[in-house]
Amino acid sequence: MVGLSGRSKGCRTCRRRKIKCDERQPLCARCERGGWTCYGFDREVSFVSENLRAKRRSQKQAAIRAKNCESECETTQLSTPQSGFSIPQGSDEEGNCMISVQSSASISGLVVWQPQVMVMPADCTVQLFPELSLSAFKNDIRISFTLAKLFSGDRDVVEWLSLGYNSGDDYINCGALKALSSAFYGRMNHDIQSENEARTHYVGVLKRLSRAIGNNESMSLDVLVSSMTLSCYEMIASSSFGPSLLHAGGVGRLIEVRGPKRHRGRFELSILESMRVSIILKGMFDRKRVFLERQEWKTIPWTFHAVQNPMTKMVQDIMCDMPGLLEDFDNVFAPEISPKEHKMRLGQLKTNLEHHLCLLFDWRAAWESEYPNSCYERSPQVTDGPFSTVLYFYDFEVCNGLMLYHSLVLLITEIGIALVGADFNHARFAQGTNFVCTNPLLQPPGVSLYDGAIEVCRSVDYHISPPHESAGAYCVVFPLKKAHDELPPGSLEHKWVEDLMHVIARQSGFMSLQSVL
User: Fold this and answer.
1) pLDDT tens-digit series, residues 355-396
2) Which residues form the Zn(2)-C6 fungal-type domain (predicted)?
3) Which domain holds residue 5?
């Protein structure tokens, strides 16, 4: 690799794996041949706080000046007899403070230094050594900190968040980013003033958003990105998950109005991919099907751009159907339908659940073939739980896809048991799957629900460890919620998940996560 010594020009994936990169752009061939996700050649942004260093430098300079001043005073005192040296103080006719220094005549030819009389206003306050003030740069500091820490590693999210940083104050998303960054910076650094300023920005952005939507600007990217940013803000500022889901529902309606063809551009597609799971979670919370389950929303946006993570997209496509399954379950037991209608709806839903289980187990077999030897065991680095070893993966997106798979199997089986009772056995639908094991540390398709939940728990340490942290916490919250529902109440693992969720909320800055369980 040509360049400066010690500065590799390889892609981010090869640099992380510490191997030589062929440097083919935009995606290197080595990652493509090895089945790895190439994260490109952009350098990751790192936030370096200079506050402490600047403060120490200012204090050091102040100490040096004070020492020099003290030395000068000692020299003057040694040169002047004590009886002939006085510092009278008084005030002039206008009430100003007067400080003068008088000295005796020269002794033995030694000329004594005599400073001038200094006149200052009475209300004047003098600070000899002021500390360096960074208040003029506080927004830049907070935004840089947020872009570096929040959703670190997720290039798509950082891209649309940065839109507010590159826009002027006339754009709504600029104010939305200030609200988000002030809230996140204040939460992570215990800065109450920053959190208060975040609330002020938030109120102003809400007013501007309501006017923009009323003026038929709802299809603009400015309005869409601002709404997405406020959804992230609520995850940090609110102690409940509801406000964030409420904003996610609003973002979903804006995306639906724009239509799938408006999201075929690279930037617009990244917005859709970033919000898919949030929109689905909102639909599951309301138990109402979402527009994302329509086939046009699973195909048209990717017309001009190849899918970066095909396996993750496939399992998210299956996840898009989950709100509709929950709505169909409620319709089966609607009080106004006849017994005949009830029986027909029950049979249709049971068939649909079995179909989705088959899709999931086929996906799991394809995932196993696509990503052999994708994980390894190690001792816990972040969490302190009941597991002596935990699972770490070589790729973050690969891990996320597997965790979504486990959560969907748990959810569908839960619906099936509630529908027809304990006779609903998910394992029998995995028997016809063409599964070839290449990851001996992972559970195969059709294992018990408890084993699937434990596998989710063993991946949490990887999710919330650097560099994932906040992004990993957001991705693992839904799988961890479903694992918690499956674990026996009162068990060691069940209690550990409850305590862990509070730790994740505090460390990631997403305070709303503590209310998920």
Assistant:
1) 999 999 999 999 999 999 999 999 998 888 899 999 999 999
2) 10-38
3) 1-44
Q: How far is CA 31 from CA 6, 237, 495, in A?
A: 21, 39, 40
Whole-angstrom distance, CA of residue 510 vs CA of residue 244: 10
204 lies in the same domain as 351: no
Question: pLDDT tens, 23-58?
Answer: 888 788 888 888 888 878 766 555 456 666 766 777
The number of domains in the chain is 3
Q: What is the spatial distance between Cα 357 and Cα 408, in angstroms, rounded to a whole number?
A: 9
Q: Over the range 250-265, which residues count as b (16 or more CB within 10 Å of their CB) and which as e? A: bbbebbeebebebbee
pLDDT of residue 122: 55
Cis bond upstream, residue 467 (ω within 30) = yes
Share of the chain above pLDDT 70, in %: 80
Whether 419 and 326 map to the same domain: the answer is: yes
List CB contacts of 304: < 8 A, sequence separation 6 or more. Answer: 264, 265
Q: 486-510: b or e for each residue (b if 16 or more CB lie within 10 Å)?
A: bbeeeeebbebbeebbebbbeebbb
Residues paired with residue 28 on neighbouring β-strands, in sequence order: none
Confidence category of residue 5, pLDDT binned at 50, 70, 90: very low
Identify the CA nearest to 180 among candidates 227, 224, 246, 232.
232
**Which of 278, 308, 338 marks a domain boundary?**
308
**Beta strands across the sheet bearing 89-91:** 89-91, 97-99, 118-120
Q: Where are the beta strands (DSSP E) in 380-452?
A: 390-393
